[in-house]
Write the C-alpha cells for this entry.
Amino acid sequence: MNLDLMRRIDEQFLETPFYGSRQMRLHLRHQGIVIGRGRVRRLMRRMGLMAIYQKPRTSQPHPGHKIYPYLLRGLAIKRPDQVWCADITYVPMRRGFLYLVAVMDWHSRAVLSWRLSNTLDADFCVAALEEAMNRYGVPEIFNTDQGSQFTSLEFTRALKDAGVAISMDGKGRWMDNVFIERLWRSLKWECVYLRELETGSQARQALGDWFRFYNEQRPHTAFDGRRPMDVYRDGHSASKAA
C-alpha cells in the first residue's frame, strides 16, 4: 500500500512540485484515499520530496563538504561539451524504488550516461561521470546541485583530475539545473509510469530503451524538432570546421 501511495505522490509531485504534505494529503483525499498528514510527510521524506525546494530532494547536502560557486549565471552556452550537468531522481518500482542519475550535455540536452542504484551513495554518480568522460571527452564546466553525492571527495576529485571547472546550484534554486528537471518529467510520463517495473534488470532495460529513443529519435521542441544527439554531433562538426 505504501508503494502505491508513493507512486501516486510522485506522479502528482511532477505536476505540482509546490505541494507540501498538507496539500498532498488533500489531493489524495479527493481521490478517495483517506490518509493522515503524518503518513504523507513520512512517505515524501522517504522519497526525498520537499515542496520548499520545488524539486525531489534526492540529493541531501553534507555539512562537511565544500560547496562551489554557480558559474552559469549570464553564461552563453553555444556548443556541446561547454557545460555538462547531472541530477538524481526517484524511480518507483512495484516492490520498492531505485535512484537514477543522468549526465546531460547542457547545449544539446543529450544524455551522455546514466546509472541506477538502490542507495544514495556517491559511487553510482562517479561511475556515470567516468563513463561519460570516457565516451565523450571532458566538459569545460560541470554543474550539479549541492547534494552530498556531488560534493563528495570522490566526485569532485574526478572532475578536478580531468581539469573540469565545478559549478553548483544556489541552495534551493531548482531552476539552476532546469533542463535536467525537464528530462525527468519526460522520462517518468513517457517511460516509468506507462509500465510496472518489477526488477532492477527490467528497469535498466526500459530506461536504456527510452534514453536511446530520447537521444536518437525523439524530436526536441527547443531545436525545431531536431534530436538531441544530432544537435550534439552537429555542434562538434561545426567546431571542427571552424
